[in-house]
Design brief:
There is one protein chain. This protein is an all-alpha fold and about 200 residues long. It has 2 domains: about 130 residues, Serine Threonine Protein Phosphatase 5, Tetratricopeptide repeat, CATH 1.25.40; about 50 residues. The chain contains 9 helices and no strands. The longest helix is centred in the N-terminal third of the chain and has 58 residues. InterPro entries: SecYEG/CpoB_TPR, TPR-like_helical_dom_sf, YfgM.
């Protein structure tokens, strides 16, 4: 097939442009492919890691207490920053509270608060931390911890605990005010318990 002079010139220009730019074009294509396949690999890797963490967490929870204590440190260190690590810290703290080891529970809950990326988990850990500090009679620290609870979902429990702390400090008026505020924010059982405490403050 014969080309006209203009077509030959256009073809020469195209060839020249390709020689000058092909490296950059290939680089862009390769980078784009790496980005696509890299993202897919990362998502698959994350899913694989999540499944593995889930299985390890389940094994940790159902293990006997002695094995649990030995495995706990390894699991939380290897999975630090993951949701399962935060769950494990909360679960371990619950065991320590049940054993009335409030000092150990406080340490674990503080770790959970510091690590938590999810606001729901952070609020739960913070509430539990304040409750443990209340048990340890660290009233000022408990009140300070409660300031970190942000979600409206937990405001009833926050006010109820805050009132009990204030009551322990001898501040009956502040406690009464917080109990009254909490009444409209809690479930019927908690409401009945708060009402009993309010009646005792009359």
């Amino acid at each position: 097939m014969a080309y006209s002079i203009e077509e030959e010139q256009d073809l020469d220009q195209l060839k020249r442009w390709w020689r000058e730019n092909y490296k950059a074009i290939i680089a862009v294509v390769i980078i784009a492919l790496i980005a696509v396949f890299g993202w897919r690999y990362w998502k698959n890797y994350q899913m694989s890691q999540s499944i593995q963490q889930s299985m390890q967490y389940e094994a940790l929870i159902v293990s006997d207490n002695a094995t649990n204590k030995q495995a706990f440190e390894v699991f939380t260190q290897e999975n630090k920053g993951s949701t399962y690590s935060e769950f494990a810290l909360l679960e371990r703290a619950k065991d320590e509270v049940a054993a009335q080891h409030f000092g150990q529970a406080e340490t674990l809950l503080q770790q959970a608060v510091n690590q938590a990326k999810d606001n729901v988990i952070k609020d739960i850990a913070t509430l539990r931390l304040a409750a443990v500090q209340y048990q340890l009679k660290q009233y000022d620290r408990a009140l300070k911890s409660l300031q970190g609870v942000q979600s409206n979902v937990w405001q009833g429990q926050k006010l109820q605990l805050q009132a009990n702390i204030e009551l322990a400090q001898g501040n009956k008026e502040a406690a009464k005010k917080d109990f009254q505020q909490a009444l409209s924010l809690v479930d019927p059982l908690e409401k009945a318990m708060i009402q009993i405490q309010l009646n005792n403050l009359q």
